[in-house]
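User: I'm writing a short methods note and want a consistent example. For NADPH:quinone reductase-like Zn-dependent oxidoreductase, I'll paste the sequence; you return only the structure tokens, no commentary, since I'll be parsing the reply automatically.
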Amino acid sequence: MRAVVTRTRGTLEVVETAIPAVGPDEVLVRVTAATINPVDLAIVGHGFGEGLAHLASTGLGWDLAGTVEEVGEQAAVRRPDLTPGTRVAAVHHGFDKPLGALAGFAVVPAEAVALVPDGLDDVPAASLPLNVLTAAQAVDLLDGTTAGTLLVTGAAGAVGGWALTFARERGWDVLGLARENDREFVEAQGARLVTGLDGLAGLEVDAVLDAATLPGAVDALRDGGTYVGVLPAFPLATDRDVIVTAVGVQADGERLTGLLRRAAGGELPVRVAATYGLDDVEKAIDVLRRGGVRGRVVVTM
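Assistant:
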């Protein structure tokens, strides 16, 4: 099979490699589509420091869609709904991995695998797993906090856009920080648009979900408020009297199945900005690197 890896800082390669073996608790998926994420850019550039420099190669890609090829013995008992040919999607979790979702086949834990419903094609299905779960689990971190006013930064982005919906459903009065030309999208998710932190002057929000990791976002919080970040490896340092936490996404096939159903039914926005073939993966990376993308960049196998 072919797979996308990085071996040296700033470069990626499409290589020929063996199909990975499936373990007893795992599922082998024939990948049809996988998404490029900012985390892939960071890994290619060793943006998480020198911690990856020791690896001979690192596989790229965190979310995928495709069909079940093989099911491990224990996984088959626990997940009888996963049989060869079943359409699935999953988060392929982790930084330190020789192969990722950007490959002809991928091995993932059975508990990470979600069923793709009829009405949702593989490309949009592949665009969802990592960021829709991140958004949902980030909003979970606000549980126990009285729902008041929540500021979501990066409100037109992949995580922030879904967080608007999930927070509104939990009773939050949501402010979405985005550009003026994103007003229609932000308001369609039930949030009020804010185009700059200066627009919060005199308004101290009860919580911030900082999907954009924006300097100064914590300053919008009232004393005692809650700040939720999206980079658990780099927690926010502040002397403010606020609660600071961060979401570290966890693969969850059962929850993802429900979210995919909602997307298929039109309840959650699915935005694919561009689709590329595997031979054009560098073009796909460049689109994301240039920034300003509204929607996901998907690579088909």
